[in-house]
Design brief:
With about 350 residues, the chain is mostly beta strands. Helices cover about 10% and strands about 45% of the residues. The protein contains two helices and 30 strands. It has a four-stranded antiparallel β-sheet, with no helix packed on it. It has a four-stranded antiparallel β-sheet with strand order 6-7-8-9, with no helix packed on it.
């Protein structure tokens, strides 16, 4: 019986070796989110499996503890990170404060931190913190389901968007005064749908409040075919600039420069556009880009791509400054395939040799 079993065992080992070489190995996931810190020296990447912190100048991963998945925000002065209801010192990841809500932002002057709790139906609770010690200075509720928020550079207003329904072709941008005693709506702006498909809708539009407070940048992709870019006056909502790029090659990766003078879009190539004349000023060959960010000082942009590739560029010249690759993961399902195959093979030989 032992000699009879030797044949299937040797056969099994040979097959495992061959399949291991063909099907085994490791893959890298897409980098779905990238976050540049304000001075462009560090970044965070999120590939859905892990969060990694990077030193851009060395291209090396920083081994920091006490971090989780989800959305991150850097404080304007680089010293704090907000994520999952916690604010930490970036250098040590030591906990500084807790906050309520899952949507959050810092004012550009660094004085205020705002968060929104959207757990209630048809309403949202807004919390405003003073960032010296993160004490709560104001808490109020609005009768709207907030889906994203940006606070003005001086901390006096917020912009957020909501839908009349989740799959509505109309997206409502609202600018709200939060500095006065009586919180009030300053203006309500409906982003026009100028695409060929009247039923198309934007999913997760991008917003940017310029550092000089004068303008708000809006970008979004309708049904992955029609890319709309708007720059509007932050006082009355009048349109300063608009760009409609009809193409199926873009995704929803859009980022504005700190003063909304330029914007970048991500597709087969990274394109940098000039708002003042509406012209494309730079094209960077960066295939399979899926996420993008612009540093707060305006000097660098970062792209996250397929197969775990991260690239950092000079925002003015387009020069590649650094390139990194995220962690690799073993091909899923391979081990299970081998186990099932081994069981089937042993049962097969057992039946033939009746042992």
């Amino acid at each position: 019986m032992k000699l009879k079993l030797l044949v299937p065992i040797i056969s099994f080992l040979l097959i495992v070796t061959i399949l291991g070489g063909c099907l085994g190995g490791y893959i890298s996931e897409n980098v779905n989110r990238v976050y540049l810190n304000p001075d462009g020296n560090y970044l965070i990447s999120d590939d859905g499996n892990s969060i990694q912190f990077w030193n851009i100048s060395s291209g090396k991963e920083l081994l920091l503890e006490n971090h989780n998945g989800g959305v991150y925000r850097w404080s304007p002065k680089d010293d704090y990170l907000a994520n999952n209801g916690q604010i930490r010192y970036f250098s040590t990841m030591k906990l500084v404060a807790n906050y309520s809500g899952s949507i959050f932002d810092w004012s550009y002057n660094g004085k205020y931190f705002i968060s929104i709790d959207t757990s209630q139906v048809n309403s949202s609770n807004i919390y405003i913190y003073e960032s010296t010690n993160y004490s709560l200075i104001k808490n109020f509720s609005i009768d709207d389901m907030v889906r994203s928020i940006v606070i003005s550079p001086d901390g006096n207003e917020i912009i957020y968007y909501s839908y009349s329904s989740y799959y509505s072709p109309h997206m409502y941008l609202k600018v709200v005064d939060i500095a006065s005693e009586n919180v009030s709506l300053l203006f309500d702006f409906v982003i026009p749908n100028e695409c060929d498909n009247p039923e198309a809708f934007i999913f997760n539009p991008i917003f940017s409040w310029s550092q000089n407070i004068n303008s708000i940048g809006i970008g979004g992709l309708y049904d992955y075919q029609c890319l709309l870019i708007y720059i509007i006056d932050s006082i009355n909502g009048s349109i300063i600039y608009k760009k409609n790029i009809t193409s199926s090659k873009y995704n929803n990766a859009i980022a504005f420069s700190p003063n909304n003078e330029r914007f970048i879009v991500c597709g087969p190539k990274v394109e940098i556009w000039n708002v003042s004349n509406g012209e494309k000023i730079k094209v960077i060959s960066d295939e399979n880009c899926v996420s993008i960010d612009w540093s707060l000082n305006g000097k660098k942009i970062v792209t996250g791509g397929l197969e775990g590739i991260i690239k950092v560029y000079d925002a003015q010249t387009g020069e590649l400054l650094s390139s990194m690759k995220t962690k690799e993961y073993q091909t899923p399902g391979f081990e299970m395939f081998i186990i099932l195959f081994a069981i089937a093979l042993i049962l097969f030989y057992k039946k033939i040799y009746n042992c």
